[in-house]
Every structure is written in structure tokens, then in C-alpha cells.
Amino acid sequence: xxxxxxxQLMIAKQVDFGVYLAERExxxxxxxxxxxxxxxxxxxxxxxxxxxxxxxxxxxIATTNEPALTLGEVAxxxxxxxxxxxxxxxxxxxxxxxxxxxxxxxKAEPGEEVLVTLYVDKSKRLxxxxxxxxxxxxxxxxxxxxxxxxxxxxxxxxxxxxxxxVDDKYSxxxxxxxxxxxxxxxDVIEAKVSNVxxxxxxxxxxxxxxxxxxxxDAQKILQIIERYGGALPFNDKASPEVIKKEAQxxxxxxxxxxxxxxxxxxxxxxxxxxxxx
Length: 277
Description:
Number of helices: 3
Strand content: 35-45%
Structural class: mainly beta
Strand order of the largest sheet: 3-2-1-4-5
Helix content: 10-25%
Radius of gyration: 26 Å
Order of helices and strands: EEEEEEEEEEEEEEEHEHHEE
Shape: elongated
């Protein structure tokens, strides 16, 4: 019997308060399916699809209700209340799902939805975690390059970028050179698919097509030059790392925008930097 998973079990015994289920006839290990959950007309020998979890008294119990989250899956669940050591989430069953504070990646309040996965803790209880989502997100999305999608931010990485769960289930990332500093974990954003990788993961962008984005990038560069007192201490030959740190854009985007400003005679490009005219 698998805790936290849906499975087919056989009705092995009937009692006044429900039926006991087993994997096969003669098994000693049995689990109760309460009377209100027993399908009408069910009898000994019939199989029932159930989900196994633990009740408030820590006893293994079966339910025919559909949980919002099973082992190996990811889902956005609403926080019902906060306790002393964690939060309680609504996952569609009689017992709320516990999310320990140590498994949170940000502070959350009742009424909010948080993206979580399900795991079995050291005490053999089912708990939720906002961590370890990356490896559990699906890679079989129906989206193609150019599609507009919605996703929930679940992690930031300085080396790689901003990790997003598209539709709360598909693996996606915004590259690190794009500025996501205005967002926080849990924000739902709209983005475009820029690439579908060979393994099915999605690359996303918040930027418009190059000819549209160039104007916004040019204005941003002017603002950066002004912050430096009218003279930027690097030019479009700087390393991608410097450009990313100072302008939060790729080197190609930076060069396009600088070229636009130069043609408009708003800047002067020197050996060591860029100055306002």
C-alpha cells in the first residue's frame, strides 16, 4: 500500500462503519475506507480506486475523494491558516495538508496560493514543501515558440535565471539577463515562449520582439547613463557579465539599443565608455 498515491485495492472485509481494503485476498495489511466513501453496491472482492493518507489520529485511511496533490506532483494550494510551526493547506480531503515553515521559500499568509509538492516526512506523514519543485515539473507542455503563457515564479537563481511553473505544472525559465527584480516568489506572470528545449523545458521571455523592445532598452540605457552623471564607464564592447549586471539585458540587446541611440545622435561612444551628447 502506497501512502500519498492513488491505487486500486480490493474490498476484503465489510463492517458497519465501512470496508477494509487490501492489495490482494488474504493480505494481513488492510486499510479502512469509511462508509460514506464506499461506492453504492460495492461488495467483497470488488476493486476500488482510492488515495491513501493519514487521518488526524495518524492512522492510515483510504478515500475515494480526489486530492489536489499526490506524490510526485506539483500544485498550487490555498493556505487556510497558520499554526505555530507551519501552515495548513486545502487539498480537497477531510484533513488539511501541513506545510512546515522550514519548507517555505517565502513568508505566506492565509488566503494565498502557494506552489507545493508532496513528500513523506521522517515520521511517515504526508507534508507539503515549496522546495524541490524543479525536478517534479512536467516537460510535456503543449506550447510552442511564440505562444503567450502564464506561470508562477517559484525560484530565483543568479547563475541561471528565474524559474517559472507554467500553468503551475510545466518547467520553464526566464534567462538571467532579463530583469525580474520587480517580482517575488509566488507572483503569476505573463510571458512568451522563446524556445522549447530538446528535453521539453520552456525558455520564456518578458521582452517584446527586438524592434519593439529596442525603444524601451534605449530609454533604459539613457537612464543608466544619467545615473552615472552623464558618462557610462563601459561601452558595447564590455563583457556580457558587466552588461547584465548594469543593464539587466543581454549583450545583443544592449548593442542594438546603443546603436539606436548613436544613430539618433543622443550619445557618443568612446574607447572606454558612452557619454551623453
